Amino acid sequence: MSAILMHRWRNRLTHVLIFAGTGEGPSIALALLEAGHRVSVSVVSAAASRAYEGMPLDALQVGPFPSPESISDYLAARAVSHVVDATHPFAMTISTELRSACFGSNLPLMRFERPDHAVFEGSVLETVGDLAGCALSGHRLLLAVGARQLAAAATAARLAGARVHARVLPTPEAIRLAGLAGLCGEQLAVLRPASGERTGGLEAALCRRWQITDVLCRQSGGSADQVWSELSSTGSVRLWKLKRPNPMPNVEVVHSVNQLCRRLDAHVNGPEPGAHHGG
Known about the structure:
There is one protein chain. The chain has helices spanning 3-11, 25-34, 46-49, 68-77, 92-105, 150-159, 172-180, 201-210, 223-233, 257-269; strands spanning 15-20, 38-43, 59-62, 82-86, 109-112, 124-125, 140-144, 163-168, 188-190, 214-218, 238-242, 252-254. It has 279 residues and is of the alpha/beta class. The strands form 2 sheets. A 6-stranded parallel β-sheet has the order 3-2-1-4-5-12, with helices on both faces. The longest helix is centred in the middle third of the chain and has 14 residues, at 92-105. The model is unreliable at 1-10 and 272-279 (pLDDT under 50).
């Protein structure tokens, strides 16, 4: 049996479950499939599941798990050997539950963490409440954070003297939460990040329409973070970022699909002589 076939045969002994909540999920799944691993994917919504159509997955789990115990039961029922946490960096509840389930089941867990875009000194906030202490009097602030954080962010921004606008996802829950934060009508834009004919075009148009001077986004490393980072680099707005939560303790972190594949190979086959498995 050739070395390549042996490598793929050995990899088929692994069953990797990816908890996907970011745009990198499909590329991670494809890379692991091409490397010969058995792959299953868990996503929260039917809309997110469409990105995996046509992939030869073992299973595609759609919808949140009802409890931490149900995650452990699923891992055991599917004979999962490795878990990849590729959820959104601010989705701390599921990351905490995955850590507990994997540690309890003695399964390797790896966190896929996207690299951050440029940040400026003094522009990263620990919490949305820190907006209250920022120099925003008379400024026009656009909130581009999660809908669940809108109320606290809007309250803090108003305390700082800012006039507040927001951009939310086109979902009933996001719009409802924006209303509870006192954001509606001309103060609110409903759209998907980085959509439109030109990436960042809608965001730039919003800033011009509302004469935005400052933007608050999350330090997510994703497409929305990139759009706002690039927009702020032109000097047209000042960008504030809500600090990304720290990784779960004692969880291995990888920062690229290639690094993830190398680390999985090391878990399964042991490190190759002279191989480098760092970032």
